[in-house]
Amino acid sequence: MEKYHLRDMLPIIDQYEKEPGSLIPILHEVQKKLGYLPKEVQEFIAEELGVPYSQVYSVVTFYSFFTMEPRGDHTISVCTGTACHVKGAGELTEELKDKLNVEEGGTSDDRKFTFNTKRCVGACSKAPIVMVDDDVYGKVQTEEIEDILNKY
Amino acid sequence: MARKEILICSGTGCLSAGAEEIEDKLMDELWKHELEDKYPVARAIKRTGCMGPCNLGPMIIIRPDDTFYGNLEPSDVETIVEEHLLHDRIVRSLLIEDDGHKVEEFQKLDFIKGQKKVVMRNSGDIDPSSLDDYLENEGYMAARKAVTLMDRDEIIEEIKDSGLRGRGGAGFPTGLKWEFTAREDEDEKYVVCNGDEGDPGAFMDRSVLEGDPHSIIEGMMIAGYAVGADQGYIYVRAEYPLAIRNLQKGIRDAESEGYLGENLFNTDFDFNVELRVGAGAFVCGEETALLSSIEGKQGRPKYRPPYPAQSGLWDQPTVINNVETFANIPIIIEKGSEWFDDIGTEGSSGTKVFAVAGDVENTGLVEAEMGTTIEEMIKIAGGVAGGKDFKAVQIGGPAGGTIPEEHIDLPIDYDSLEEAGTIMGSGGFIVLDEDTCMVDVAKFFLDFTQEESCGKCPPCRLGTKRMLGILEKITEGEGEPEDLEKLEELAETVQNTSFCGLGQASPNPVLSTLRFFRDEYEAHVYEKECPTGTCKALIAAFSIDESLCVTCGKCEQVCPVDAISSGEESYTIDSDTCISCGECAKVCPVDAISEGGNE
After folding, report:
1. What is the pTM of this model?
2. Chain B residue closest to A133 (CA)?
3. What CATH code would you report for A74-150?
4. ipTM of the complex
C-alpha cells in the first residue's frame, strides 16, 4: 500500500470550486490516486469543502464505485448484464475467484488485482465481457482468463 | 484512382473485439507499402463511433466506394491493403454474407437497409474526437440558426410541433417540458443531460455519447437558449470510460473554438457544459436522484411535485432530458418540425434506437422508425439465432416487460407498448428463443432491481426482496400453489406504493411474464418441472441404461461430485448425490446415460 500525505490531496481539491457539488468528482480523483478512500482523507476533504464529514461518508458508502478498503494495482471485473449473464459470466466469475483466490470485492495476496462484478458495460454483442481497468475484453472464454491476467 | 479513406469502428464493442490491433496493423501495412505519398497515413484512417452491427466487429468501411469488411482478423489486413487499396480490387472472400450472397456496400447490408438514421446520423461516419469533422457535417449550424435567427418561443413551438417525446422511457413531450422551465421567472436555470444508462442490455446512449458527442452539446445548447439557462451538466456512468473521454475532449474543443462559453455566435447568449461522472448507482437514472448526485449527495429520489422543470438542480428550474432526446434536437431545428413529425406514427414521431441483443443472428444498434413491428425488428437483426423458434422479446429492461410470439406484429411506439404491459424504456431489446425459461428471466431482472433499490422506501426495499424470495423458491422446486397469488399481490402493492419509478416499475418483468407465460410458472410450481431445462434444481438426476453400459468408467472419472460407482454389469448413479451437470452423458461413448431415464 502506498504511503500518502493529506496535503497531497490539495492539488486535486483546488482544481474544483469549494462547494458541495464538487464532492463526487473529487472523490473520483482521490480514489484514482490512492486506490481507496481512507477515513482520514474523507475527513480532510469534508473540512476543505466545508461540508459535514457525515455527508462525505454517506456518499462514499452509497455509491458502489467508492471503496474504503485498499485496492490492488488493477481492478478486474466481470460484466453481469443480461447478455453476459446468459453467455456464461457466472463461470468467468468462478474462474477468477479461483485463479486469484479471492471473493468478490477482494484483492489478491500480491495486491495486484482487485476482483469485482460490474453492471452492464454495454458491449452486449461481445458478451461475456471482462474489463481490466479501462480495457475491455470481449467473448472471453474461461481458458483465456490466465492470458488476460498475465498481461498485467 | 480515387483517394480512399478507411473508416474503422472504434466503439466499445469493436474495441473489445480487437479493433485497435486491426488499426495498428493497417498503419503498419500502409507504411510498409510506402503508400504515404498517395495516402498520408494520418488522413487515410479515420476512427469512428459505433457503426451498428456490433457482432461483426472489428469492422472497416472503405470510401468512397463504401465497401464493408467485418469480423476482421489482423491477418486479413495485408490482403485488404494490397488488393483493395493498391489495386482497387474488392476482396470478395472477406465480404459479409447475407442469406448466402456477398454484400459489398455497407448500406446494402440487411442489418442497415431496414434502418432509418436520425439520431445515429453521424455515429460511425465522423471522427467523434474531431470538432472539425462535426463542423464539416453541418455541426453547430442548428445552434447558430436557433440562437441568431429564432426567438425562444419559436424554438419551443418548433419542438412541440415536432411531437418529440422523451427517449428516456416515460415519453413525456419534450417541448412541453421546456415550456414549463422557460415560464419560470428565475435567473439561474439549468439544462441536464441524463446519460446514466443503467439498464442491463442497453447501450444506445453510450454509442451516441461515444460516436457523436458534439450533437449532445449542441442539443443542450439549443435547450439552454430556449429556456434561458447558461449552464449545462452531462451526467454519464462511470462504466463508460470511452464516452467520458470523447465528451471531455468535445467540451474542451468546443470551448477553445468558441462554441461554448460567452457571447456565442456574437450574441449575448452564454452557455457552458460540465461533465459529471456517476459512481455506480442504478437509481441515479431517476431524474431527481440524478440531480441529488450532481449536488454531491447520495443519489436518492425526491418526491415530485415539484418537478425539476420548476425546482430541480440547486432548487432552480431545470430541463432534464435523455441523451437520445438531445441528439434529436439539432436535426429538428435544422430540418423543421414537419419533417420530423412525418417520421413515425401519429402519437410517436421520429425514430427510436434499440440495443438489440440476445438470441438473434445479428446483434447491435438498430435505429428504426416508430411503428416498426417487433417482427420487422427481428428481421433486421437477421432472425432468431441458430434457426431456433422465437419465444419472446424483453423490451425496456428491468422496468419493462416481455412480449410473446402472439404479439409479434405489435408496432413499437409508446402507446402500443404500454397497452401490451411494457414500456418503451430506454431501448433495450433482448430477443429470447425457445430455450429461455421465463421464470428465470423474471428472477434475473428482479435480482437486479432488488440489489439496486436505494432503500429509501419500504415497498421497494422489502417488497422486491420478498418477491425475489418467492421466485427463488419457485425455481428451486419449492414453490407452493399460493405463491403465484402472493407474487401478484406483492407486485401490485410495490407498483402502487413505491416512492419512485424504480420501485413502481420493478414488478413489470414479473407481471408481464405471469400474464403471458403463466403455464411456465405453473409447471415449476405444480409439476416441479422447468420446461426449458434452465432451472438446474428441477432437472431430474441422470441415470445409466444397464443394457447399454460397457463399463468403460469414463463417467466415473468426470463426475465432479463422485456420484457414480462401478458395478458388475453397469455403472450406477446415486440420484441423491447427482447434481445433474450432465458431464457423464457427454463423455459416454455409447450414449447410455440420459436425464431422468429409468429411475
Report:
1. 0.89
2. B241
3. 3.40.30.10
4. 0.88
